[in-house]
User: What shape does this take?
Amino acid sequence: MTGAPRTVDWDGDAIALIDQTRLPGELVIVRVTDVDSLIDAIQRLVVRGAPAIGVAGAFGVALAARAAAGGGAPATDAVAQLRAARPTAVNLARQVDRAAARLGDGFDAVLAEACAIRDEEIAASHAMGERGADLVAQLIPSHAARVMTICNTGGLATVERGTALAVVQTLHERGALAEALPLETRPLLQGARLTTWELERMGAPYRLVVDAAGPALLASGAADVVLTGADRVAANGDVANKIGTFALALGAQHAGVPFVVVAPESTVDAATYSGSDVVIEERDEGEVLAFGATPVAADGARAANPAFDVTPASLITALVTESRVVRLDRGEQL
Amino acid sequence: MTGAPRTVDWDGDAIALIDQTRLPGELVIVRVTDVDSLIDAIQRLVVRGAPAIGVAGAFGVALAARAAAGGGAPATDAVAQLRAARPTAVNLARQVDRAAARLGDGFDAVLAEACAIRDEEIAASHAMGERGADLVAQLIPSHAARVMTICNTGGLATVERGTALAVVQTLHERGALAEALPLETRPLLQGARLTTWELERMGAPYRLVVDAAGPALLASGAADVVLTGADRVAANGDVANKIGTFALALGAQHAGVPFVVVAPESTVDAATYSGSDVVIEERDEGEVLAFGATPVAADGARAANPAFDVTPASLITALVTESRVVRLDRGEQL
Assistant: This one.
């Protein structure tokens, strides 16, 4: 993504976000100057992806500090609302809290902390790409890898490069990627809209598939490894991630294909004991019942729309972070 | 569906089809008077569902017989093209062959055979509904059932009432349905577009869910049983059905939820030894890459689009047909 705008960044006096609701059609940067607008952007998925909303949240604390210094409401109120804008990913609350710990030192200190968080996430993405590609080379020593992914785990989910898709990019840069098989990721099609856009930019070979085809394609031998991101990694190794991750893990287990979770340490939450302690966000049923303004179901239809699921540690081969590879399949603990 | 038009029927001098590409927005009947138009309708999914395309194919042989009697091409050529219009469901080739066996006796004999096939499928749907509901009552004796389904297996997949959704309808008529959880069934959304339309018509309680949520909802205890249809049941009990069925079967196994396949005997194919012998239709990538005329992926994106998958008999609790319940989980053979 060198030369391309960052997914989230500080731009003079505002947060600059790539508007992910407009992709792949248009690359639009939106500038956010107040916390209410940032909460709206996070909830509408203008910015999404656990590490990215963590960084955005940290910059949001800087907005709150500036508003309070200018005579607005106390920053603590805005910060409390911001950290609760989305419940499942731990990164948002964690990075908001980290930046908010500097509120007593003023706007400049908060902004410096947020920039540090941004820079650490960038470094983490590069390191995850390297560690993950090394692991894939160990797991699949004989040939270039065919990699299945879900949702968007690229630069658009972080600041640059990504988590699982950073590994795909590193493999591609090493000449070790045979094909990526991104799942489209209903209902909001982050895999179709965002991941194909990033794969096109990196010039990597891929074919998009519907979510329901993932386990069947694994059973037919179409992929060598599954790489996913995470919204929260519990202390016992359970992983909360985009809805459909669990189904893919079942498919990988059935096919004997390694299932690897790639996420920065900022996503690992020692305070969450297991997956059953994670709050799964239930999003609006309209996301399922219509495509844009076009209804896809009968008049009067209702829907359930859980946005995440939990994959038990027992189905996970390894967790890759910027600093370690935890082989859950060998009984290693976080 | 009493009082409603049949999904497929003979209407004086033409085949009358509900145009399933127009639902749920509009209920439109199309009249088909030649085999080429019927092949097009089958391939565009104007009519779909294994039993329904079997009946449509049988009526198509009558169209071929009439054309040949009127001086057109030999019926055998048209019949050969018709039986190969879609490869995965056995019903099309089987019912075309059955009707074509009467070609030597003329148009009236072929039409009579096609009408007999239609009537047998109607009777089969009623019987499957009763047998399936009885089985669900045995499997879930303590409370009204919460039933997960995939694709459309209702009257729109047959002539009337359906296969798996006939069981849902019978349960609802008995007051034994707590909730249906239809999967939307990407890429063509037969579950969203067609199954919700049928559930609304029967006044049954339901919530639509994305395909990827099926296994996770089963793991969370949201459903008591999974009911699916089939496009082909192999001699060893393996089932070819809509893509995503296999993932749902893995989810059911993981959750300890019964997984029941409901299909007429016309779908059981003793000549197909196992699921690996079934030809899986690969459909156009455009179905995945765009929603109607709106692209959902990046410019230049490619897709793989397998329309069906194979669920091994080892994951199936029971097969319900109009004449028997085969408890595959107890080692019973077809």
Notes: The CA atoms of residues 26 and 115 of chain A lie 27 Å apart. The mean pLDDT of chain A is 97.
